[in-house]
Amino acid sequence: MRVLAAMSGGVDSAVAAARAVDAGHEVVGVHLALSAKPGTLRTGARGCCTIEDSRDARRAADLLGIPFYVWDFAERFTEEVVETFVGEYAAGRTPNPCVTCNEKIKFEALLDKAMALGFDAVATGHYARLSIVDGVPELRRSVDEGKDQSYVLASLTPEQLRHSLFPLGGSLKSDVRAEAQRRDLAVARKPDSHDICFIPDGDTKKFLENRLGSHPGELVDAETGAVLGRHTGVHGFTVGQRKGLGIDQPAPDGRPRYVLSLEPVSGTVKVGSVEQLAVRRIDADRPIWPSERPLDGPTECVIQVRAHGGTADAVAEADGDRVRIELREPLRGVAPGQVVVLYRPDPAGDLVLGSAKIAATE
């Protein structure tokens, strides 16, 4: 196969490309330039699209003996990822920009261009297992549960998965680093990328304030209705947040307060106890079924609402473009805007049933 290897400049994508070469594929490496000003992005290997990352990717491609290109996706990244991120926070929702980036950039824009150029598949360094059974994609958690990235891939369509390769899904991260060392890849010990790449200093609140300005509102006790303070915008908060609320007076029982809900129209941020964070029902929309199998009636499953952690046993039922999820046990910190992924426990590894965008919780 002709395979386009997406090379971020990190150890995972470099080893994934190397394995694609070993498998006998005709491999071409590509690095995505996602910022019009890459020099302003975080350096020191904490991001995934800096100038140094592109250089690391090129060195890895040279060592592997494969052609290498840099594709400019900066404008589309800004429109699809950054502006969506800002808009979701302005609407009182909690987005995951990595999910959006995978969906809109790496497996829509990149894959579309790869197919137009005659490639058969795109290979990435994601930790997830993918198999095609009788033409039907089956996406599962990776062997390395601590590095599993099936959550951020669960929004991919069946057609996108049919043209995707995840060579690292059956490996532990420690083994991948050891392999990179044996291959003399310079990125063998490079730290993992983390945080949001387009927020250089990691200060999400300041980033949003610079773009959305000030929209004052009140901090209100959800139980009594008492006004506890004021704020400069609901975009400065997320459901489940405990620190930095700006409330001077303690709760009557002396226990911490948490953000329970955000109301962007009125500017109200409701706060309360940790017990009030418990969610037992989730209503979600825009479902995607990676294996082309929508739920057929009430289905026992395990749901996940964040990239790492936040799982619970549940019963889910689909009705057209809506999914209703009843949790067997309460889950905290669930917010509109998050993606909920449904898994089916399976001896071969938890199978992704589908994903949807959280619209409301109870």
TrEMBL record:
Coiled-coil parts of chain: none
Enzyme Commission numbers on file: 2.8.1.13
All copies of domain tRNA-specific 2-thiouridylase MnmA-like C-terminal, residue ranges: 281-358
Main localization category: cytoplasm
Organism superkingdom: Bacteria
PANTHER family, per database record: MITOCHONDRIAL TRNA-SPECIFIC 2-THIOURIDYLASE 1 (PTHR11933:SF5), TRNA 5-METHYLAMINOMETHYL-2-THIOURIDYLATE -METHYLTRANSFERASE (PTHR11933)
Keyword field contains tRNA-binding: yes
Keywords (A to Z) from UniProt: ATP-binding, Cytoplasm, Disulfide bond, Nucleotide-binding, RNA-binding, Transferase, tRNA processing, tRNA-binding
NCBIfam families noted in UniProt: PRK00143.1 (NF001138), trmU (TIGR00420)
Top enzyme class: transferase
Gene Ontology annotations of biological process type: tRNA wobble position uridine thiolation
Residues the record marks as active site: 101, 197
Protein name, UniProt field: tRNA-specific 2-thiouridylase MnmA
Site (Interaction with tRNA) residue list: 126, 338
CDD domains, per the entry: MnmA_TRMU-like
Physiological role: Catalyzes the 2-thiolation of uridine at the wobble position (U34) of tRNA, leading to the formation of s(2)U34.
Chain spans, region Interaction with tRNA: 147-149
Catalysed transformations (reactions): S-sulfanyl-L-cysteinyl-[protein] + uridine(34) in tRNA + AH2 + ATP = 2-thiouridine(34) in tRNA + L-cysteinyl-[protein] + A + AMP + diphosphate + H(+)
Transmembrane region(s): none
A GO term, aspect molecular function: tRNA-uridine 2-sulfurtransferase activity
Protein's UniProt keywords contain ATP-binding: yes
Family: Belongs to the MnmA/TRMU family.
Source organism of the structure: Amycolatopsis taiwanensis
Binding site for ATP: 6-13, 32, 125
Gene: trmU
Domain tRNA-specific 2-thiouridylase MnmA-like central: 205-272
Localization in the cell: Cytoplasm
GO terms under cellular component: cytoplasm
